Amino acid sequence: MKKLTKWFLATKFWKWLLLTVLPGVRWSVGYTKIRGWVYKRGYRKLYPGCIICTVDENKASVLIPGTWSHSALCVAKTPDCEFEVSEMTQHNFTESCFFDICKEADRVLIGICDDWDIMYIRKVIEKNKSFKDKLYDVQFAMNDEALSCSESIYHSDFEHRLKVNLEDIAGLGHEYISPDGLTKASNFRVIWDSEDEFKSCPGRH
Prior knowledge:
Blueprint: H1 2-9, H2 12-21, H3 36-45, E1 51-55, E2 70-74, E3 85-89, E4 92-96, H4 98-103, E5 107-113, H5 118-129, H6 149-156, H7 179-183, E6 188-193, H8 194-200
Antiparallel strand pairs: 1-2, 1-5, 2-3, 3-4, 5-6
C-alpha cells in the first residue's frame, strides 16, 4: 500500500488534483466561522515567530489526518508591513496577512516554540524568507527542495529546536511533518485558540 501511495504522489494527476482542484473545493456555500472580533483578538496575540495552524471544516483539505490542515509562520508585524505571514499554498511560497489566514478558516491556533529565543526567531524568519522561490512539495518528501506548509516551518527551524512529531500519520512510508506534528511538539505552547473566544462569548457569531 505504501509503495502504491508513493507512486500516486509522483503522478501528474495527483499534482493537478492537489494544486488545482482541492484548494477550491468546499462542501458548503456558507461562510467560514471566523469573524472580525475573533480576528482582532487573535491579532493582538500575534508576533513574529508565532506558528499559526488552521482548519476549514468544509474544505477538502480536512481529508488530511489530524485536527489541523494548514500551518504558516508569522514573519513580521508592524503598521507599515505589507505582509505578516509566509505560507506554502497551491501558489507555492505565499506572502499573506493574518487576515488572509483567518478569513478562510473555521478555527485558528497561534503557538510558539518555548526554545526559540528572540535572536533565534530572527534567524528562523531569515531562513524562512530564503524559501521564496520554492515550489509546493506535492510528494511530502521532507527535504527542502520543495516544501509543504509544515515543512517550510520545520526547515526554517534549522537547528530543529521544536521537538516535532514526525509520525507517519498519512501512511507515506517515511517521516512526515503535518500541522498536527508541529502542535504536538513537547515544547510547543498554545498562546491563542479561536475556539476559546467562541466559548467565552457564546452569544456572538
